[in-house]
From TrEMBL:
Signal peptide annotation: none
Protein name (database record): CGNR zinc finger domain-containing protein
One Pfam entry name: zf-CGNR
Transmembrane segments: none
Record domain Zinc finger CGNR: where: 139-179
PANTHER family: BLL6575 PROTEIN (PTHR35525)
Length: 193
């Protein structure tokens, strides 16, 4: 028996977040980059040389559309909302599980029935694989930094990541420090006689 559709391999998670952050409307708008040109899609090959060796880099339109469909998964307010959004992506990508064999080695293989959604299918599969290993959906998030809604996947041992990068974290700490200094300087107890 043969299964309909094309086999899909998961994107590397680092590439997935890079696509969302560099091509998604929300991250670009928050960063004031809405009018700026998109980075060249070929540059993404640095993250997935094996993937791009099998096929050409996706067109810009597919990158933007995929990024915009994925961003809400990271922005979900609960595990239930995350699951609902992933179920929507599974359907949109036409993903179905199947079993495949190479000699006596039988393994799960996902397929897409929608060839135009291969990038979305690969990105969705990456999130499914990640959540299979770590089902805590709160570890998928959007940056709390000012003027930033970039996405991240929290791999930290403490499980408390809130920023997409050290740059955003350091900016937030600097702002908080300066605000505290200003507040301390303007309080009545800080005034010297």
């Amino acid at each position: 028996m043969t299964h309909q559709g094309s086999a899909v391999d998961a994107l590397p998670l680092r590439l997935l977040t890079r696509i969302v952050n560099e091509y998604g409307d929300a991250p670009r708008a928050a960063a004031g980059e809405s009018g700026a040109p998109y980075p060249p899609a070929d540059a993404l090959g640095e993250e997935a040389t094996a993937l791009w060796a099998q096929r050409a880099a996706p067109p810009e339109k597919a990158l933007v559309e995929t990024a915009n469909l994925l961003h809400p998964v990271f922005a979900a307010a609960s595990g239930g909302e995350c699951a609902d959004r992933l179920n929507t992506l599974i359907a949109e990508a036409g993903l179905t599980p199947a079993m495949a064999a190479r000699e006596w080695d039988v393994r799960e293989q996902w397929r897409t029935s929608r060839p135009g959604r291969t990038l979305l299918a690969a990105a969705t599969l990456a999130l499914l694989d990640h959540l299979r290993g770590d089902p805590d959906a709160s570890r998928l998030g959007t940056c709390l930094g000012e003027a930033c809604v970039d996405v991240y996947i929290d791999h930290s041992p403490a499980r408390r990541r809130q920023y997409c990068s050290l740059t955003c974290q350091n900016r937030a700490r600097t702002r908080a420090y300066r605000a505290a200094k200003r507040a301390a300087g303007s309080s009545p107890s800080a005034v010297t006689p």
